[in-house]
Amino acid sequence: MPDATETTPETPATTSAPLADVAAEAWSGVHRGPLRVGEWVRLIDSKGRKHNFELTEGKRFFSNKGHLEHDELIGREEGFTVRSSAGGEYLVFRPLLSEFVVSMPRGAAVIYPKDSAQIVAMADVFPGAVVVEAGVGSGALTCSLLRAVGPFGQVHSFERREEFADVARQNVTQFFGGQHPSWHLQLGDLAEALPASGLRADRVILDMLAPWECVDAAADALTPGGILIAYVATTTQLSRFVETVRVHGGFTEPHSWESLNRDWHVEGLAVRPDHKMIGHTAFLCTARRMAPGEKPPRKTRRPAPGAYGADYFGPRPADLTEQSLEERDA
Ligand SMILES: C[S@@+](CC[C@H](N)C(=O)[O-])C[C@H]1O[C@@H](n2cnc3c(N)ncnc32)[C@H](O)[C@@H]1O
């Protein structure tokens, strides 16, 4: 007796019904089904060059391989190849969030997807969370944060430069296809604007030149157990931020790291790391907010000799004066 689930050439497998479009209330920035007018598509040519554009009825896309009509793409399911008038072949998909943020217009430098992913995971950004970020820059991280908190959360983005806030507003609105209900964009310097807002937050994310200037404001806004995370490009910024968090005293011991991504070439027997990689983007550092009046346990391990010696000029925890260290080392 043949298995009822078995298919033979005479009885072709039935194709199941297609998935309906993603619910608009999810605010995912994703669509399923046929490509529509007003949506953004990403075309990739045979050399890997990317072209992003908004589908418009009656419009043409031009490249060094001639042109093709937007109308040829509208109404088709993404994931196909088209040929332009001069024989160029293009792969057609909707852009992913990770692709959108690296190709969207920029005001300030963006946080790359590898670091946005680390921030969402390591700062444990959850659906429904209240998140504060500064500065908003071009809005790249904002898109990932809004995805993570969802329609029941809140992302409060502070930016002190109006022209960058405008770029971010345009990018985030384009990605989500409208004004995301969880997003609140505010102009101002976080160090002053956050205390003035009276906000309480589960997470505070700092991506700016001088995050140490915002540690007090972040500490006052963070709920006990909340997470402070900074994204900094240089070792000197990292050092100053970490020491400022230690001196504040209301956080757990800061944890600092960076992530390195290396692509691999996989072809037959030639399986090896790519020759090129992005060697450095930034360092990340997290610390958790203690409850009011509570201090983390004193570190039992002594700092490395010279760590806070005569050549060190940064912020210094109260128990690490030169004299106290000399006495401990004696
Ligand atoms: C590198 S960009 C942020 C990029 C953003 N995270 C993204 O992924 O697109 C840094 C931004 O922080 C802003 N900024 C610097 N210090 C600030 C502060 N104290 N308060 C608010 N914004 C600040 C700058 O104007 C700049 O737009």
TrEMBL record:
Residues 102-267 form the tRNA (adenine(58)-N(1))-methyltransferase catalytic subunit TRM61 C-terminal domain. Pfam families: GCD14 (PF08704), TrmI-like_N (PF14801). GO terms for cellular component: tRNA (m1A) methyltransferase complex. The keyword tRNA processing applies. It catalyses: adenosine(58) in tRNA + S-adenosyl-L-methionine = N(1)-methyladenosine(58) in tRNA + S-adenosyl-L-homocysteine + H(+). Residues 289-330 are annotated as: Disordered. GO terms for molecular function: tRNA (adenine(58)-N1)-methyltransferase activity. It is an enzyme of class 2 (transferase). Keywords: Methyltransferase, S-adenosyl-L-methionine, Transferase, tRNA processing. InterPro entries: SAM-dependent_MTases_sf (IPR029063), TRM61_C (IPR049470), tRNA_MeTrfase_Gcd14 (IPR014816). This is tRNA (adenine(58)-N(1))-methyltransferase TrmI. It comes from Nocardioides jejuensis. The lineage of its organism: Bacteria, Bacillati, Actinomycetota, Actinomycetes, Propionibacteriales.
